[in-house]
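Notes from hallway chat w/ T.B., transcribed later so I don't forget. T.B. wanted the structure written out for a chain they're using in a teaching module, and asked if we could keep both sequence and structure tokens in one place. Agreed to drop them here.
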Amino acid sequence: MGNEPVLEKKSAEVFEGLNLKSDAKDLELKESTKGTDNLDFKEWEEMHVGGQTRLTADGLRIMSIRDLKEFKKDMNEIGIKVILDKKEGILPRNVAGGFDPYTEQMVLRTDASLLSALHESYHAKQFRELGQENYLKQSRSEREEYVYNEIMKNKEKFIAEEIYEAQRYIFFIRNKQWPLPNWKGYEK
């Protein structure tokens, strides 16, 4: 497929059941770990991914820590506070992110996809353009149509999987049900 996700597992899970310091009979294993007693092994999630973009199970790009910091800074400049749901206690499990027009805060998961962050930023942009009162006069459908139109206007920023996911979501908003699994998306 070409866009396989970079799988991340804790080293303890990867080497589960192996005692690398034991008197293992596997000479190759013993030789490969010789002299490593004093080394601190990093967990997989701490390791640099060599420029590869991490992906969600749906193929959406996950923002790097650097991207998240820059995004938070950009949102802060327009008066929007970004909160990362580190303990997964704010957002419902089926929600990728959210913008609260009453508190002027945005909540994202720590493994936020680029699509979910930009989706919420388009809500914040419209909120700033219209002001709170006019923004709140709109229906959910009107707000989501605005976001979808912004995504489509800027589709060069997105990969095919992200465009498809945006189309699935607007389909859900318009039809009050998710498209069938074999749905191919809207025509270009």
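Follow-up for T.B.: The chain has seven helices and three strands. Might be a good example for the class.
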